[in-house]
Amino acid sequence: MRKLALFLFALSSIALISCERESGVAETTAPAAGPIDLDGAKAAEVLASDPSIVVLDVRTPEEFAEGHIKGALNIDFNGDDFEKKIAELDPAKPYLLHCAAGGRSGQALPLFEKLKFNQLYHLRSGFGGWVADGQPVEK
After folding, report:
1. Fold of 34-132
2. Could you give phi then psi for residue 135, rounded to 5 degrees?
3. Which alpha helices (H) appear in the chain, and where do they start and end?
4. For position 43, what pLDDT does the model report?
5. DSSP assignment of 69-101, as one string?
6. Which pLDDT belongs to residue 32?
7. In the chain, at which end, N or C, are there fewer CB atoms within 10 A of the end residue's CB?
8. 67 CA to centre of own chain
9. Average pLDDT per 10 consecutive residues for the chain, totaling 139 residues
10. Cβ neighbour number for residue 112 with a 10 Å cutoff
């Protein structure tokens, strides 16, 4: 009986450790494992370290015109052709995805995963977080 109890304890410990590792995936693994959530300051660091990252702004054209991250590509999440335009992008390139506050871009993440984008960063605080963190804006 004691051996059975020890076995069950060991088994449950392994399962618990495994679950803890899965819960931290977005913060600790390479981009290919799934989207990595970033705040404005960390997003600026990542962009500075890798100029090949495409900034993808999914706000409306009107929001984009009021200010955006330098060099950003605008594809309106609410546009009828959003999925088609995303499917036309090169999934091998790295992307930093954002909207105004993280809602629309967060809703778009499953599409990027479905289309098997290799490197995806998500500005979880959106453009508002970028601005609040004192990052530069282009008009």
Report:
1. Oxidized Rhodanese; domain 1 (3.40.250)
2. -85, 155
3. 2-23, 25-28, 40-49, 61-66, 82-87, 103-114, 126-132
4. 97
5. -TT-EE--TTSTTHHHHHHTS-TTSEEEEE-SS
6. 52
7. N
8. 20
9. 41 37 35 82 97 98 98 98 98 98 97 96 97 96
10. 21
